[in-house]
Write a structure and sequence with these properties.
The complex is a heterodimer of chains A (266) and B (149). With 266 residues, chain A is mainly alpha-helical. Chain A has 13 helices and 2 strands. Chain A is globular, with a radius of gyration of 20 Å. Classes of the chains: A mainly alpha (266), B mainly alpha (149).
């Protein structure tokens, strides 16, 4: 890590990217019932991608490896901030009731459906990172610490994180309208499901639902916010204790089924 | 010990870059956001030390999230002050440097990204849909059992 710290060029490039990205700022576009949201972090990664030897040739292989080696550590500050978002709401959440608490186990549905599909379309270890959870900040940080964000698992979780950031609000805005037309679940159930651990996705869902059911809007919003904060609270624990071990078991079992032999490292 | 100091240096560096972004993008002055940033740095250091010296089986991330939560719990000494301070450090301002480091490093992964690209997009749609539907199904069943809907 010493070399990475001493690589002043990398830090200056990062500073430059941050300044440029924040100057552009947040851009939102209304698309149907949702919004396409472009955040400074997306510009940073997008512009950064052109620094490599394939395009601008500003950074060498060594610089790229060293920059990547620092990402896991940089996530810690974000996670500290994340915890401080949850703390003030802790007791409200505890009193939220059994339905709200139990729906958090919906994360198991994510991996039961996601991992087989990811493997079916040809992903390998990327599946674990991509489909063990909805890939919000706590999940990215945990995968980063366990596998490293440079690994196949890390690429998977980062990919889904970025896609979710770009398309999440549109997707959930549409999803909420679609589910209410299908009329399988009660609006309160949909509201509770909206808190997946991303404020913007929750807002998009709750926004659509409140427009469709204005007489229930107040309760829908309360459920959405409570459920989202709850996801923030249990996200890391859920991933570490349940989702990751289960994903690995499922992956191994499916791998044997598909290739007829045990998994090997990479 | 060396590794601890190195981690500390990286965190301070990232904190400084974040403060710059926080000023440009979210209009919090450098000095205004400094106390909150120091609190966040303190939480990170404590988390790293806990992972090293208390119980290394638990990931640092878990210590850090939990600590951040505990010091802002209503009733914890100084919790309101801590909340107010860290409130001056925008959440999104913290995400930009992370993705900037990832961006500088991403050039070496472009080929593997080309191969996995569309698959990841498909998986992320599946993941978003299945998380939502599974949670809605559970809530619906429990709410029905409780007679609330």
């Amino acid at each position: 890590m010493t070399d990475a710290i001493k690589n002043v060029k990398v830090h200056l490039l990062v500073l430059g990217l941050v300044v440029a990205s924040e100057l552009i700022g947040i851009l939102t576009f209304n698309v149907g019932p949702g919004k396409l949201v472009l955040l400074p972090m997306l510009y940073a990664v997008f512009i950064g991608a052109f620094f490599g030897p394939d395009f601008l040739k500003i950074v060498k292989q060594k610089d790229m490896v060293e920059a990547s080696s620092l990402v896991g550590l940089t996530l810690l500050l974000l996670m500290a901030r994340y915890g401080t978002l949850v703390g003030p709401k802790f007791f409200e959440i505890l009193s939220a009731g059994p339905a709200l608490l139990l729906q958090e186990l919906g994360n198991i549905g994510t991996l039961l459906i996601g991992i087989p599909i990811a493997m079916f379309i040809g992903l390998k270890r990327e599946s674990i990172g991509a489909a063990h959870s909805i890939a919000r900040e706590p999940n990215v940080a945990l995968i980063g610490e366990i596998y490293g964000l440079d690994s196949a698992e890390g690429r998977g979780v980062m990919g889904v994180y970025i896609c979710g950031t770009v398309f999440g609000t549109i997707f959930y805005g549409l999803m909420a309208s679609f589910m209410s037309v299908m009329d399988i679940f009660h609006p309160y159930a949909l509201a509770m499901a909206s808190g997946v651990g991303s404020a913007s996705m929750m807002t998009a869902t709750v926004g659509s639902l409140s427009a469709i059911y204005p007489e229930m809007a107040e309760k829908i919003q309360a459920f959405g916010v409570a459920s989202n904060t709850l996801s923030g609270l249990d996200g890391v624990y859920m991933s570490m204790l349940i989702a990751l071990p289960l994903s690995n078991k499922l992956y191994d079992a499916l791998y044997r089924l598909k290739f007829g032999r045990l998994t090997k490292e990479n | 010990m060396n590794k601890l100091i190195e981690s500390a240096i990286v965190l301070v560096l990232v904190a400084a870059i974040t403060l710059v972004g926080n000023t440009i993008g979210y209009k919090f002055g450098l000095l205004e956001a400094l106390p909150g940033m120091l609190v966040l740095l303190g939480i990170c250091f404590a988390g790293i030390l806990a992972n090293r010296f208390v119980w290394s089986k638990l990931p640092t991330v878990l210590y850090v999230v939990t600590l951040g939560m505990v010091i802002t719990l209503p009733g914890f000494p100084g919790s309101e002050t801590f909340s107010a301070w860290v409130g001056k450090v925008n959440f999104l301002a913290l995400t930009t440097p992370i993705l900037a480091y990832a961006g500088v490093g991403i050039g070496k992964d472009l080929n593997s990204l080309k191969q996995t690209g569309w698959r990841i997009v498909v998986v992320s749609l599946v993941v978003m849909a299945s998380t939502f539907i599974s949670s809605a199904a559970i809530s619906n069943v429990v709410l029905k059992m409780l007679g609330e809907i």
